[in-house]
Design brief:
Layout (H helix, E strand, L loop, with lengths): L6 H13 L2 H8 L3 H15 L4 E4 L2 E4 L1 H25 L7 E7 L1 H8 L3 H7 L3 E7 L13 E4 L8 E15 L1 H5 L14 E5 L12 H4 L4 E6 L2 H9 L5 E3 L1 H4 L6 E3 L6 E10 H4 L2 H16 L7
Parallel strand pairs: 3-4, 3-5, 7-8
Antiparallel strand pairs: 1-2, 5-11, 6-9, 6-10, 6-11
Helix pairs in contact: 1-2, 1-3, 1-4, 2-3
Length: 299
């Protein structure tokens, strides 16, 4: 084993295995493309086996590569545990935690609360990835994820975070110039803004069709905040959760007290990262937000 003197060779291997291409791995690791290729070639020479099938589409693990991944992930977990043991006695948590969330949850719920966490853990750095398309736990784009689509398999810790209700909202201008809405059936006569239906969005975001079989959609966006802005301008009605709608008093809830759809939010993290102090701290902080914001969420 003396020839395997550099852990970073295994780190490079694991990163390429997770992201699938040398170019993506180089961006993730902050090194040149050629450096990643050279490290992979060196590791293959040391183990005496081809670890990846190279093609124009990327790097796919060979049988030898798949066998090695489990061992390297065990090494990575052991490294995490070793680092944790050195800081266990400290009241402060150091390091970076990358958190992936749906756009609206990250912008409207988590981001406004992060100052509370920073006030007591100033050495902890949060990278918030809040976007319509989920980042990947599999490729370790994030360490913790808030998601509507929990992992179906793999070594993950998963818990149900909350249930979120969707209501229909419209601007006062729109509602004053269009037919009144007293029942769900009245919505058929109204225009809506909605998500882009191009296959890039999770089906869990596509809620409107559950309420209206053939809605009149006059504008679509991959961003729920853009949809909200269009509705505020009077373009049409929009389906929102209260934590998105209530960021300002510029929308009126249509059919108040009558949620038209419900979704579950899940919290997930890889098992090895869940054991670390920094990830567990962020995990518990997100759970505490849901408890504190009980008006907007249901457990």
């Amino acid at each position: 084993m003396s020839k395997f003197h550099d852990w970073t060779d295994f780190q490079f291997f694991l990163t390429v295995a997770r992201v699938g291409t040398v170019s993506k791995a180089s961006l993730r690791l902050g090194v040149e493309h050629s450096t990643v290729s050279r490290r992979i070639d060196r590791l293959e020479t040391l183990v005496g086996a081809v670890l990846f099938d190279r093609s124009k589409k990327g790097y796919a693990l060979t049988d030898a590569g798949r066998s090695l991944v489990g061992h390297v992930e065990a090494m990575e977990s052991a490294l995490h545990e070793a680092m944790e043991s050195t800081v266990a006695r400290s009241r402060y948590v150091m390091g970076t935690v990358r958190v992936g969330t749906p756009e609206a949850f990250g912008v409207c719920v988590l981001a406004p609360q992060l100052e509370r966490l920073h006030a007591v853990q100033r050495k902890l750095h949060i990278e918030l990835i809040a976007q319509p398309q989920y980042p990947s736990l599999v490729t370790r784009e994030v360490d913790v994820i808030v998601t509507l689509d929990p992992p179906k398999s793999g070594r993950y810790t998963i818990t149900r975070l909350a249930e979120i209700d969707y209501f229909v909202y419209g601007s006062p201008t729109y509602l004053n110039h269009h037919p009144s809405i007293k029942t769900i059936g009245d919505l058929d006569a109204h225009a809506f803004v909605d998500y882009v239906h191009d296959g890039t969005m999770s089906d869990r975001f596509l809620v409107l069709e559950e309420i209206i079989s053939q809605p009149q959609i006059i504008m679509t966006s991959s961003s729920i905040l853009a949809q909200r802005a269009a509705a505020v301008a009077g373009m049409g009605l929009v389906l929102l959760t209260p934590y998105v709608a209530d960021v300002a008093d510029d929308l009126v809830c249509v059919l108040p007290g009558q949620p038209l759809a419900t979704r579950k939010l899940w919290l997930a993290a890889p098992n090895d990262l869940f054991k670390t102090k920094r990830v567990r701290l962020v995990w518990d902080f997100i759970l505490s937000i849901i408890t504190d914001e009980s008006r907007k969420f249901r457990r």
